[in-house]
């Protein structure tokens, strides 16, 4: 790895999984670590490699506007985004995250990864509980037709689940090391 390259890891996390992954990645890469509110868009130009991590919320990557709004300023840099969610990593998942969050130009220029997070219904904010309750009713009504993801989600309302796995950051680390 070229140690002269400066790397920023920036994250937006509501319940802690994305923060955990960002911390693991920053430590491994000896990068500067920022919670999203602690960095301004213009500070991004100080870095050669920008790694952004955000949790998935109804398909959207929280906080990723920081990358989108500043894209013209940072487009010559190495940009890596990791999304943290509960779904299983299926073939189409990355494509669907890409389509819901980025236009074609940005999509072609960034590297996108998916990491599995955690879920504890009891700890959710009131708004998130309301949103998830609607999902729960929907899942229950389709109980017999649910795929693995749906069944897992339904079970998660009763018992907290945590898929955070330090080993899964390896794909992000390899990507950074290959490109700098
Ligand atoms: C309201 C709500 C919406 C969610 N939407 C998605 C989603 O669209 N896709 C997904 O894979 N996970 C979804 N999740 C699961 C979160 O992404 C998961 O809990 C993640 O670990 C949260 O990250 P954080 O701990 O950094 O806040 C959702 C969770 C909540 C509470």
Structure description:
GO terms for molecular function: electron transfer activity; FMN binding; menaquinone-dependent protoporphyrinogen oxidase activity; oxidoreductase activity, acting on NAD(P)H. This is Flavodoxin. InterPro entries: Flavodoxin/NO_synth, Flavodoxin_CS, Flavodoxin_dom, Flavoprotein-like_sf, Protoporphyrinogen_IX_DH. The model has no long low-confidence stretch (mean pLDDT 94). The protein folds into 2 domains: 131 residues, Flavodoxin domain (Rossmann fold, 3-Layer(aba) Sandwich); 39 residues, no CATH class. It is built from 8 helices and 8 strands, in the order βαβββααβααββααβα. It has 180 residues and is α/β, with parallel strands linked by helices. The chain binds flavin mononucleotide. Flavin mononucleotide binds next to helix 1, strand 3, strand 5, strand 7 and helix 6.
Number of strands: 8
Give the bound compounds.
flavin mononucleotide
> What is the name of the CATH class of the largest domain?
Alpha Beta
**Portion in strands:** 15-25%
């Amino acid at each position: 790895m070229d140690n002269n390259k400066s790397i920023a890891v920036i994250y937006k996390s509501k319940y802690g999984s994305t923060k955990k992954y960002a911390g693991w990645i920053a430590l491994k890469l000896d990068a500067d670590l920022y919670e999203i509110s602690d960095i301004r868009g213009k500070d991004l130009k100080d870095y050669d490699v920008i790694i952004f991590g955000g949790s998935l919320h109804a398909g959207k990557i929280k906080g990723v506007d920081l990358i989108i709004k500043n894209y013209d300023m940072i487009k010559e840099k190495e940009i890596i985004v990791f999304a943290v969610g509960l779904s299983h990593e299926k073939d189409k998942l990355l494509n669907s995250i890409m389509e819901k969050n980025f236009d074609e130009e940005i999509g072609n220029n960034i590297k996108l990864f998916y990491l599995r997070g955690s879920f504890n219904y009891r700890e959710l904010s009131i708004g998130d509980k309301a949103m998830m309750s609607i999902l729960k009713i929907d899942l229950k009504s389709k109980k017999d037709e649910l795929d693995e993801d749906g069944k897992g989600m339904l079970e998660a309302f009763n018992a907290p689940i945590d898929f955070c796995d330090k080993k899964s950051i390896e794909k992000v680390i390899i990507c950074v090391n290959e490109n700098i």
